[in-house]
Amino acid sequence: MSLKIQVTLRISNMKRVSVLYLLLVMLVSSCQSVVRYGGSSESPPASSRDAKEGMATYYANEFHGRKTASGEIYDMNKLTAASVDLPLGTSVRVTNLDNRKSVVVRINDRMPKNSKGRIIDLSLAGAKAIEMVQTGVVRVRVEVLNQ
Predict the structure, then answer these.
(1) Which end of the chain has the least Cβ crowding within 10 Å, N or C?
(2) SS3 state at 4
């Protein structure tokens, strides 16, 4: 093969490699996370379809140290909660509608399907954060932050 043909083939292969490399870089860069919502790391606002209102209770001593539906051990001093239908691992903001105090908790357990109108059971730490320990049951708004 002549030198001219060898050089031409080498240049063609380099172009192919360059194009493949460029495509790979574009693919990888499109997978990076992007900070949104005003340039901060705060959670995006929940839409109305990701929020619901209802009654909340809390659970503490009786279940402390027992295994939850997620497999982790329930710790009443951590900001966790139980839900009938939200996926395990979901973070939610729970707002006490009487005093407007709110707390972000992670769903790590399940409530019974016949929960008598309750939409969430908070850990003791979550209940303290929204000042509902005295009353035991309060009306709340639950907003999904991530799933």
Answers:
(1) N
(2) helix
Is residue 131 left, alpha or beta, with left meaning phi > 0 and alpha meaning psi from -120 to 50? left
What is the number of H-type helices and E-type strands within the chain? 2, 6
The HSE-up count of residue 103 (CA atoms within 13 Å, CB side) is: 24
What span, in angstroms and rounded, lies between the C-alpha atoms of 85 and 125? 22
Token pair 């939409």 in the structure block, residue: 119
Q: What is the pTM of this model?
A: 0.65
Phi, psi of 140 (to 5 degrees): -135, 165
pLDDT in tens, 45-60: 444 457 899 999 998 7
- Give the three-state DSSP class for 59: strand
Q: Which residues pair with 139 in a beta bridge?
A: 55
